[in-house]
Amino acid sequence: MELTHLDGEGQAFMVDVGGKEMTERVAVAAALVKMKPETLELILAGNIKKGDVFASARIAGIMAAKRTPDLIPLCHPIPLTSAAVEVKPQKPDAVEIIVTVKCRYTTGVEMEALTAASVAALTIYDMCKAVDRGMEITCLRLLSKSGGRSGEYHRTETE
């Protein structure tokens, strides 16, 4: 596979997507925040002093999806049509984050979905670090994408 963000001299540049067809594009990404079981219980009981952890993580993820070109070099600013962040407790000791980002544009939204998942996870860490500095953010991954020339991608169990 050829890297497309390098010019003829091997220098990084922003790819010209102006000639590509506008299509519906969807990307789904996920991340996992591992924590002490007691930390998850505090979150679920609403006893984290900084407030509603899941609501804050959802808002942070959505905001991150919208700001991806400001955070990741060479990403195009994309007019997103939606960004949804689902935050699900995984008893006894984790929180799963699943992000779905959509647009109708000439380039995909994989980076927006991955950025949203990572920022939502970091928000959970930030809100809970006073009670559990040993939390671990793991399993950041693209689950699926559709639209565009490269076609469909669906993560398999073995990946």
Write out the strand line-up for the largest beta sheet, numbering strands in chain order.
2-3-1-4-5
Please provide the ordered H/E string of secondary-structure elements.
Answer: EHHHEEHEE
Task: Please identify the structural class as seen in this structure.
Answer: alpha+beta
Q: In the residues, how many domains can be counted?
A: 1
- Overall pLDDT confidence: 92
Unreliable residue runs: none
Top CATH class = Alpha Beta
What name goes with the CATH superfamily?
Answer: Molybdopterin cofactor biosynthesis C (MoaC) domain
Kindly report the CATH topology.
Answer: Alpha-Beta Plaits
Tally of DSSP β-strands: 5
The radius of gyration computed from the alpha-carbon positions, rounded to a whole number of angstroms, is 17 Å
| CATH architecture descriptor | 2-Layer Sandwich
Number of alpha- plus pi-helical segments: 4
Distance between the termini: 18 Å
Helix proportion range: 25-40%
What does this structure look like?
By secondary structure, the chain is α+β, with helices and mostly antiparallel strands. It has one domain: Alpha-Beta Plaits (2-Layer Sandwich). Helix content is 28%, strand content 30%. It is built from four helices and five strands. It has a five-stranded antiparallel β-sheet, covered by helices on one side. The two termini are 18 Å apart. The mean pLDDT is 92.
